[in-house]
Amino acid sequence: MGFRFRALSLLLLQVLLLFLLETAKAEDFYNISNVGSMKQERTCNLFEGKWVFDPSLPLYESSSCPFIDPEFNCQKYGRPDRSYLKYTWKPDFCDLPRFDGLELLRRWRGKKIMFVGDSLSLNMWQSLTCMIQASAPKAKISIVRRESLSTVIFQDYGVSLFLHRTPYLVDVVKGRIGRVLKLDSIEGGSVWKGMDVLIFNSWHWWTHTGRTQPWDYVQVGNTVKKDMDRLEAFYQGLTTWARWVEMNVDPTKTRVIFQGISPTHYEGKDWNQPRKSCNGESVPLSGSLYPAGTPPAAEIVKRVLSRMRKPVFLLDITTLSQLRKDAHPSTYSGEHTGTDCSHWCLPGLPDTWNKLLYASFTM
Asked: Where in this chain does the record put each Trichome birefringence-like C-terminal domain (predicted)?
């Protein structure tokens, strides 16, 4: 009887330890960076917190930065208020390090950093170049802008910041039947090789239909369809991307970051103001929770990343960005007609994304 009781107790203890280990792994994935040497207390989650007013912001002016496209240059195109420039992200149990562009250039000396994705990657890439230039105004800079691949080089440090525009990450090819979105193919990933840092983003274009949809058919293996559920297509495409990372990235040489899902603010009902959009909004939502909750695409990103063997740091910007209904170009964009509630003004919210990126390399 005593032996049987001890054996049962040992079995229950093993089950409890296994449960605690799996719980710790889950917390590690979402709360602790897998990039660089960043180590935090378990209670410090950089992505949980609130927005607070900071009169010292912004870190730069749009008029002094040559990298900003008209679609993000809200001050130039008539936005009358500046309060949206004055908010900083404050994590609940720790502080973000102050952004130091010179320190980042020193850490990245001789390295190649590539942003890969859609116009939200463009938003973040231009923000980072402006932030670094503000820290190193005398640095020699060369700029090459092309449709799919652009580069800013800080020549004194040999730091190259690339942008590869590929909104689905997977391939869109022209065939006999038309333009085909191939959910199981990433031939375009060849340009990602040899980078020291890769920062990926996708989702914005997966919801496009009609004239703005840049493909006619979707294909997986030998199966071709006219259309399919967009969340399922995103999941399959992101799984193909994850497989590419597993097969092509050496984590001792290349750090991989996923930018996270950037939200839109077209529907005021999402923040309990059903008659509004982002137009005319001038202050963030208070608190730390977004009434509409987490978008399904963000859950898909977490699911795919949690199954990967190679380390990928999730720059989990979704909730903190959902609170910034005030930070979009709205009607103050130089290239968009109507109201733009999907991209972000520069200076603005993407500067915080880059502060969090900086923290992942320095904390």
From this structure: 96-359
* Angle at alpha carbon of residue 74, lines to 120 and 48, rounded to 5°: 50
The answer to whether 361 and 355 are in contact (CB under 8 A) is no
Q: Residue-wise over 195-233: b if at least 16 C-beta within 10 A, else e?
A: bebbbbbbbbbbeeeeeeeebeebbbeeeeeeeeebbeb
CB atoms within 10 A of CB 168: 26
In eight-state DSSP terms, residue 159 is E
Q: What digits encode the pLDDT tens for the residues 62-105?
A: 999 999 999 999 999 999 999 999 999 999 999 999 999 999 99
Length of the chain in residues, anyone? 363
pLDDT at 3: 47
- φ/ψ (deg, to 5) at 299: -65, -35
Between CA 199 and CA 277 the distance in angstroms is 30
Helix orientation angle between 2-31 and 296-306, rounded to the nearest 10 degrees: 120
C-alpha 302, offset from chain centre:
13
- Of 137, 135, 141, the C-alpha closest to 155 is 141
Question: What are the residues facing 197 on neighbouring strands?
Answer: 113, 255
Distances (CA, A) of 34 to 30, 312, 314, 320, 363: 10, 6, 9, 20, 12
Distance CA(304)–CA(239), nearest Å, equals: 6
Identify the CA nearest to 94 among candidates 48, 55, 25. 48
* Catalytic annotation, residues: 119, 340, 343
Taking phi over 0 as left and psi of -120 to 50 as alpha, with beta for the rest, 260 belongs to: left
Segment 100-122, tens digit of pLDDT: 999 999 999 999 999 999 999 99
The β-bridge relationship of strands 171-175 and 178-182 is antiparallel
Percent of the chain with pLDDT over 90: 85
User: Which residues are CB-contacts of 22 (< 8 A; sequence separation ≥ 6)?
Assistant: none
**pLDDT tens readout for residues 200-246:** 999 999 999 999 999 999 999 999 999 999 999 999 999 999 999 99
